[in-house]
Amino acid sequence: xxxxxxxxxxxxxxxxxxxxxxxxxxxxxxxxxxxxxxxxxxxxxxxxxxxxxxxxxxxxxxxxxxxxxxxxxxxxxxxxxxxxxxxxxxxxxxxxxxxxxxxxxxxxxxxxxxxxxxxxxxxxxxxxxxxxxxxxxxxxxxxxxxxxxxxxxxxxxxxxxxxxxxxxxxxxxxxxxxxxxxxxxxxxxxxxxxxxxxxxxxxxxxxxxxxxxxxxxxxxxxxxxxxxxxxxxxxxxxxxxxxxxxxxxxxxxxxxxxxxxxxxxxxxxxxxxxxxxxxxxxxxxxxxxxxxxxxxxxxxxxxxxxxxxxxxxxxxxxxxxxxxxxxxxxxxxxxxxxxxxxxxxxxxxxxxxxxxxxxxxxxxxxxxxxxxxxxxxxxxxxxxxxxxxxxxxxxxxxxxxxxxxxxxxxxxxxxxxxxxxxxxxxxxxxxxxxxxxxxxxxxxxxxxxxxxxxxxxxxxxxxxxxxxxxxxxxxxxxxxxxxxxxxxxxxxxxxxxxxxxxxxxxxxxxxxxx
Length: 514
Hints:
There is one protein chain. 37% of the residues lie in helices and 19% in strands. The radius of gyration is 34 Å and the shape is elongated. It has helices at residues 22-33, 44-61, 63-66, 90-101, 115-129, 149-160, 166-169, 190-207, 234-239, 374-377, 386-405, 411-425, 432-444, 447-450, 471-482, 489-497, 504-513; strands spanning 2-4, 145-146, 217-221, 226-231, 253-256, 260-269, 273-285, 294-300, 303-310, 315-326, 329-339, 350-360, 451-452, 466-468. α1 (22-33) packs across α4 (90-101) and α12 packs across α13. Strands 3, 5, 7, 10 and 12 form a five-stranded antiparallel beta sheet that branches. A five-stranded antiparallel beta sheet has the order 4-6-11-8-9, with no helix packed on it. A two-stranded antiparallel ribbon has the order 1-14. It has 17 helices and 14 strands. The two termini are 22 Å apart.
């Protein structure tokens, strides 16, 4: 893959993905191609090739609609002359190339050119009519591309290990020619920039731990509670069949206000010690008032922890926290919902939901564990010394920046981000992890992450107008073209060794098979 730089190329065109009629293409293509100096002078070889090779093909397949007096679409091949005037109608040849290659012309049920005839036609248009140098084709210029919403979401997933919905958090991407990854139209508004900053903060809040150890926590979903007995009213049950609890995929357990229902859950504690149990309940009713009332009783290991009455709420959350000293072994939670209102008074669906229960502990710090994703960002504990911390921060941030920027980073840039992290974790009350997370937020807000910056191959002449892109740029082009995400480890390794270009065919097959 090559990239043009320096002056703008004179024969670069942007091809629309839509199939256009010859007449509609003429005005567009003429402005893009006709101004090239190559079209201004007679080129006898092109005219000679046309007369011997192309004209018989046009006469065989196109004359019914575009010759012998027929001018469908405003195209008349009768007036074509075998001289330099052939090169002054590039819009026509662009339409011929596009429509014959796509099989749109000749029309359906008409005889079509053979593969060999199509190749002759295409080669004359590209190399004679358009003047493309087949030995040294001009790739044109490349506009720096911003990651679109799909690419941003996928890159965050692969880089950070969390899901981020850019399609709901960011405004729609601008489109050009029916695509939303055209560099020339992917603008960056002030509002989008603010959203990138907000997104970076929320992503790191979810993905990057800011402490080295956390209290163990086990979450028990409300759906895992089992009903042990219930006294149901037929009318109430029938009326509630369309209530919110009908969705089997929900993780909560819904208990009807107009029924008396008991439910339990038995869980196991492996280590004796001090624990904290957090019970989350949610009332769910319709927007309109309902007269239903219920009494909720909650017990732990047979001991009553609370008993409360509840009335109508549209939606309201209740949280209860209990400190417990438990022995190792099995323990039981029990909840009972008693209907206090006659089912005859029921107006709408109304229920008490067990959302979930969190069991936190043991509280003794010797039992605390690494938080989720800690090893993904921090291979080990931070050293105690100032110099050791800075060296460790440099290692972490260099690795992260290389992945985020999709290429190696220079020491000057690494030092800037390390200094930023150091300015945070050296503050009173701050720790090493929070400083690193702060610098990582800045990395995600950097243009080097948000845009796909490219460089030319090492050793390219600084005065050359055309040069190969380097291996890291090639890796990004392949990855975002085929996967819409950042390069994986194998592409990075091959780019680092300078072997991606020569092994590109095998890598394309591997990526397509993924």
